[in-house]
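# step 3/5: fold
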Amino acid sequence: MGRAGGGIQTLIRKIRREEVPACVRIIRNSHQTVADAFGITVENAPRYVAFATDENRLLWHMDSEHRLMFVEEENGILRGYYSLLLKEDHECELGNLSVLPEYRHRGIGTALLQHAIRIARAQDCSTMRLSIVEENSILRRWYEQNGAVHTGTEKFDFFPFTCGYMMISLTAAGMRRLFEMDKKDYSECTRTLVRNSARSILIRDGKVAMVHSLKYDYYKFPGGGIEKGESPVDAMIRETREEAGLVVIPETVREYGYVHRIQKSDWDADECFVQDNYYYLGEAENKPVSQELDDYEAKESYRLEYIDPATAIRKNRALKNSPYNRLMFEREALVLEMLQSEGLL
């Protein structure tokens, strides 16, 4: 039981078994407005949620799938609903987020979504997935404004609409967004690759630890991709040790912020590349250890340097000869400038 709000005070709690019929009504009435707007009927889409949801389905969600099921209420009136299906690999599925039409535009949907994010994080989920009617551009924008990323579409013979898929990175939920790098060149992409990363910010005597590529002469914060089932902090600690030979002291780690990047893939014109880059401040042990470089890192002669930020910024922005997208180098320069402006460097 708890309170959440987006400009309102609203009670959100787990449903009681006897409330299943009321939850069915919320789901069906909420999704009926979408059906009416996009010509979805019981004849052309009997499996659509507005027509197919009944008490047996929700009881199956409760008893067989063991979904976490919540309602929003005020003065005993149930006005909103959602469920979470916990899955493998730290993922969960957001189901049937619904608000009765007569109670919309009061912040209830936002409160439910933020509550779902908190519950999912408490269940050790790192990714939340959801589906929408793709043609419902208003709903898609609303989810995007609340941190969701579009990941693809699918067409089924039994639906007259296109199913759209979205995801919310729960590791970014609650972390400050430093800035966004959006090239807006992906409108014709048909699929999405999400590849998040975690990076360390280790400052000593006014200089910051960075990995210097001697081959291409650029600087990057130590870090790299988050592996399946790995937390961003664990990935940051592992990658910093491998790339820079620095052993981060876990109890010193604190969030700095993340950078959201989205663009058409450099390698596949049909693919949209989405990446959240999580930055963490911290301290490292005084004595470095041996690097454990991948083949391409070794070929670039990665070397740890404590560098003054002005030099790293100048080098990255002057770089011309490299196989990588220039957004990577500009991202690091912008983060360095933020650290300077906030008095951390």
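# step 4/5: annotate
The two ends are 43 Å apart (CA to CA).
# step 5/5: archive (pending)
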